[in-house]
Structure formats: C-alpha cells, structure tokens
UniProtKB/TrEMBL annotation:
The keyword ATP-binding applies. It comes from Periweissella beninensis. The keyword Glycoprotein does not apply. Residues 24-180 form the Cytidyltransferase-like domain. Its EC number is 2.7.7.18. GO terms for molecular function: nicotinate-nucleotide adenylyltransferase activity. This is Probable nicotinate-nucleotide adenylyltransferase.
Length: 208
C-alpha cells in the first residue's frame, strides 16, 4: 500500500506541473525480443509513463565486451518491434554520438532534448547490485529515477533509491536467440514476427 501511495502522489505532482514521465529502456538489442517489450509495457502501465524510449547503445561500458552487429541494423529491428505501440519510441542518440555509451552522459543529453521531463531508467534486478560500479552513479541518481523489474534469485539490495515493479518473467535472451538462429531453430514467438522476418531476409546471425 505504501508504494502505491508514493507513486500516486508522484503522478499527481507531475501532472500539476505538466512534466512528462518518460521511461528509458537501454540495451544492445542484439536482437530486441518480446521480453524487452513486455518489461517496457508493464513499467509504462504500472508507473503511468507517457512514453518509453528504446535506446540501442553503441558500445556498452561492460568489462565483458559484447560484440554486436551494426547499430543501425539493431535500431531498424527495434523500430520494427515497437512501431505498433504509440507509447514506444526509438531514440538513437547513443548511436549518433558513437564511442562508449555511458548512461550518465546520455541522460544529460536527453534532458536537453526532452525538457520538462522526469526520466525513469529501467533496469533488470540483476543490474541493481552493480549500480555502484556505474559511471558517475552518484550524479546519475540525481538525474533519473531507477526502476527495477523483480526477478527470482536476486535480492536487489542497494543503497540507491529504486522503484520495484513486477512483470511476467519471460526467460528470453538475445544470446539464446542468436544461438537458435545459428542452429537453424525456430525463434517464432520469441521476437516480433516483423523482426523474425527481418533477420531471415538479411540472414543475420548466421555463420554459413
């Protein structure tokens, strides 16, 4: 009950000042899948967000470097996946900037591009414990509201303020999808059909 009261008050305050509530859904999206879409929709619905921005990163600042196909191709798949949802929008600010995609720098740029906006940064439960390692995290936490999606097996303990939401746990990963494609196994219902068609037409993630 306490969480609902806090969120309701926040919503009322923002509406009174005409401040938009925008979610940030960042990731490599290599490729985007239905799990991403379910999380974004649930967060948007539960927190009454006006919009969710999908931000494909250029080079993620992870210690375990991720190899991904070209950013413009990943962005095209994101666009296909979200085009039927008026609350979802593709944002290519990190791809346009190039280099390593640091969330703090991206958020500062977004605040200039989208003034009078309260940003909700969506992360997975597994990312919560790593927040202390994020670049400029103590400054970033002042600029956004972190929203974490609950997941079994993760305690989610952190000194930073995080809003927790529940969403259907769909065990889909981009890594698994790429493996299935390499093995010529179906990815139907794992990704939107338009994305599946795009991958097949472009022969993406195939080694032969």
């Amino acid at each position: 009950m306490e969480k609902v009261q806090v969120l309701t008050a926040t919503t009322r305050d923002l509406e009174a000042t005409n401040i938009k509530r925008i979610g940030i859904m960042g990731g490599t999206f290599n490729p985007i899948h239905n799990g991403h879409l379910i999380i974004a929709e649930q967060v948007a619905s539960q927190l009454a967000l006006d919009q969710v921005l999908f931000l494909p990163n250029n080079i993620p600042p992870h210690v375990d470097k991720k190899k991904a196909i070209e950013g413009n191709v990943r962005a095209e798949m994101v666009n296909l996946a979200i085009e039927d949802n008026s609350h979802f929008k593709l944002e290519t600010i990190e791809l346009a900037k190039g280099g390593v995609s640091y969330s703090y720098n991206t958020v500062l740029a977004l605040k200039k591009k989208y003034p009078a906006t309260s940003f909700y940064f969506i992360i997975g439960a597994d990312e919560v414990e790593y927040l202390p390692k994020w670049y400029q995290i103590d400054e970033l936490i002042k600029e956004v509201i972190f929203v974490a999606v609950r997941r079994h097996g993760y305690q989610g303990k952190t000194k930073y303020q995080v809003i927790w939401v529940d969403a259907p746990l769909i065990e889909i990963s981009s890594t698994d999808i790429r493996k299935r494609i390499e093995q010529h196994t179906s990815i139907k219902y794992l990704v939107p059909q338009k994305v599946a068609n795009f991958i097949e037409d472009r022969r993406l993630y195939q080694n032969d």
